[in-house]
Amino acid sequence: MRLAELSERSGVPIPTIKYYLRERLLPPGHRISATQAEYGEGHLRRLRLVRALIQVGRMPVATAREVLAAVTDDSLDPHVRLGAAVWAIPHGPEPDGDDPATDTARRTADALLEQLGWRFAQGTGEQSPAYRMVVSGIATMVRLGYPCDVGQLLPYARSAAELAVADLDLVERYERGEEQVEAAVALTVLYEPVLLGLRRLAQAEESNRRFG
Amino acid sequence: MRLAELSERSGVPIPTIKYYLRERLLPPGHRISATQAEYGEGHLRRLRLVRALIQVGRMPVATAREVLAAVTDDSLDPHVRLGAAVWAIPHGPEPDGDDPATDTARRTADALLEQLGWRFAQGTGEQSPAYRMVVSGIATMVRLGYPCDVGQLLPYARSAAELAVADLDLVERYERGEEQVEAAVALTVLYEPVLLGLRRLAQAEESNRRFG
């Protein structure tokens, strides 16, 4: 397809696509004349992913380039590639070194993973940005004096496990390989605002049921 | 307690507390001399909430003041107050007027709420920031050409409903009234990064189970 069709099918304006091409977030098209290039389905998918990372994930261009490098690294197997790409997505604030609240949070997170039997997460531990995101969140609650123990976190972790099954089911609708990794990264980012919005709607529903 | 103890127990530095007092995010203490004031447990709770809104919710001071106004409005009953306070929390991007993707997203969201039987959410509809947040998220997926229908959203909504039960159970640990509304707002904001982090840990776990 030509640039105009790529723009129409992706909903991304032509000048934005040209910018992504210049920034090498999108591979060049197949040149068919001095002024025209042809783009394929792979370009369309990649463009959607770039748009998701930058517009919804609010990622700087340099970070998006890093995520895409992991997506397209053929030297890694799909599971590792998937992990590497999702790891490169920004994860919010890092834990505050080793103040007492962070120590408590780390022990709580470790006990939670132990109880859930999440062996993979236990194995990656401190190296995983998602682990550090959880520790940082728990530490904030500890620091502000909100109770936050394993018993309280368990229902959230169990819901997260159910969400992950839904997430991976969506990913498996795509063909194996690069396409699947692209979908995993895009859906991780795109479903976050939907999930937080649904949680708030569900809260209003539940609050109405209890106190309404 | 004195200012120093309030700072120690909340983990918030004294100059920051003085700033919140000047900005009226925190009610003044009970003056006991020309230079000293006494603060109570209510100040401690309010301070934790302010900190959660500004530091974790990344809210501008003016928005935090608006949320707090809803928290402390005695003319509203607890359920309405809770709703008003949570509604005042920023919800991310608004839907894009009435482009075709937003129309599709609105129909999808309505069909989802209908299928879930969430009557309260259906009643508030377009007026609810959480509803608009969901519509905006679905519209982004539609615009980028990712499939996003009711069947795909249902497991996320069901998890959201389970999360809301956990959320409201936490809120009910507090005494009724202002304290409960404060906890609801703080926990809504504080659990968001923890939940997103747990989802990514669970994804890695599930990905390892399927492809590892």
UniProtKB/TrEMBL annotation, chains A, B:
Protein name: MerR HTH family regulatory protein
GO molecular function: DNA binding; DNA-binding transcription factor activity
Organism: Streptomyces wuyuanensis
Stretch forming the signal peptide: none
Domain HTH merR-type: 1-70
Keywords linked to the UniProt accession: DNA-binding
Keyword Nucleotide-binding: no
PANTHER family: HTH-TYPE TRANSCRIPTIONAL REGULATOR ADHR, REDOX-CYCLING DRUG-SENSING TRANSCRIPTIONAL ACTIVATOR SOXR
